[in-house]
Amino acid sequence: MLDSVRVRLTLWYTGVVALVLILLAVLTYFVYSRNIAQRTDANLVELADTFVTTFRAELADETGPEAAKNAARQAMLEHRFRDTVFVLLDPNGSVLLSSLGLPAVGVTNERVAPELFSSRSFRNVVSAASSPRTLRDVPGGKDGFRALARPLLAGGNNYTLVVLQSLHPQQQLQEDIRGTFFLIIPIALLLAAAGGYFLARKSLAPVAAMASQARGMGAANLHDRLAVSNQRDELGQLALSFNQLLDRLEESFERQRRFIADASHELRTPVAILRGETEVTLSRPDRSPGEYRETLGILREESQRLAHIIEDLFTLTRADAGQYPLAPRDFYLDELASDVLRHARSLAIAKRITLTSSIELELLFQGDEALVRRLLLNLLDNAIKYTPEGGTVNLECRKQGAQVIVSVTDTGPGIPADLQQRIFERFFRADKARSRSESDGGGAGLGLSIARWIAEVHRGNLELTRSDASGSTFRAAFPATKS
């Protein structure tokens, strides 16, 4: 049950609402109870003040206990309030008069026993009449009383006035508030839980639909995409991100299928040649030694070509998996370029191609020397293969600002504009635009792909900057090494 996101969201939402409602109820009850108590105390003080004023007005200039009793009776008759009791004590602390003994005066909703005036709690209130805090709680009746005692000087005698107000209405009101909260909060929580579950279910419905659609996707229908109802909300962004992932996966699968197909095609040719030459040789036992040597030469060339293709495939596979071990170190690029030119010169002489260079001296470079060597060899080999006899291939290495520039320029026929974007694809060869014979050791179309990968792992890039009828230029740019 808790595995469902809808249920967990509903529980969290209901829990938060419950916490808020409980805190609000407790705070409201506390504030309201405090305000009621403060109003009760203020009312007692006001009642005592008005009673004293009326008592002194009725007493006038008369003296004696009887006059004080008559004045207190008149004041009690004039101050008849619900749930309020007035008690006047003589100087000895005895009850001189209370409103309980007067007709139509006294507590109307509960009985107050006269024994209350002789109780210990009542005497404690009387003894505190002269203290700053004269308000006390007195047990009795249903819910007790709030009592105020204050000294009263009249006719040369010290009397004590005690005002009692029943706490039953206050307690009854607080009980009603508690009952209301106990009834309202569960109902509110039920409504919040139902509403939260409905909202969670409605909000997560697109997720369920996307999950159902995603479960039906596979390699056979990788072109399908999730439906996006609202691109501006979070679920729409999730669907868009998933669709973009599917785009990348489809592109990756397509590249992989094309790569496997092209690799199979490239490997099938040398294998077929090896098999054919072997079968022809074995079918004629009377062949001369010269014919055997010719066959073995063909087998060697095709084996070398097959090994070269396999090595390139292995390199690209490790590069795609991020498992090719780099060995970066500092070296001088001008020395490496000069050494590469010496190795490439034999290829250029075989095709009567002029090999030139423009290499800046003391060109410090940091990187994997073996990979950079391979990049230069691939670029030179590619240029020599596609340059006709009598042409020129130029290698340039120089520092330009914060970059090291390596460029290879040939005087070949160039690459058509519609094929220039695909020149770095694996197994791609623009044979129609740049004629190449198998006798020149034509490769499998992986050299430029490997060269671009080498440039990228050295935080650089490789581009075809120019290609027209006068030739082509490949340019690699690397971050310069600080000397």
Short description:
The protein has 9 helices and 12 strands. It has 483 residues and is of the alpha+beta class.
Search tags:
single chain, 483 residues, alpha+beta, Beta-Lactamase, Helix Hairpins, Heat Shock Protein 90, 3 domains, five-stranded antiparallel β-sheet, five-stranded mixed β-sheet, 9 helices, 12 strands
Secondary structure blueprint with pairings:
Layout: H1 5-59, H2 65-78, E1 84-89, E2 95-98, H3 120-127, E3 135-138, E4 145-154, E5 157-166, H4 168-215, H5 234-283, H6 289-320, E6 328-332, H7 333-350, E7 354-359, E8 364-368, H8 369-385, E9 392-400, E10 403-410, H9 447-457, E11 461-468, E12 471-479
Parallel strand pairs: 7-9
Antiparallel strand pairs: 1-2, 1-5, 3-4, 4-5, 6-8, 9-10, 10-12, 11-12
Overview of this protein structure:
With 483 residues, this protein is α+β, with helices and mostly antiparallel strands. It has 9 helices and 12 strands. The chain has 3 domains: 5-173, 2-Layer Sandwich (Beta-Lactamase), CATH 3.30.450; 234-320, Helix Hairpins; 328-479, Heat Shock Protein 90. Strand 9 (392-400) and strand 10 (403-410) form a beta hairpin. Helix 5 packs antiparallel against helix 6 (289-320) and helix 8 packs antiparallel against helix 9. It is rod-shaped.
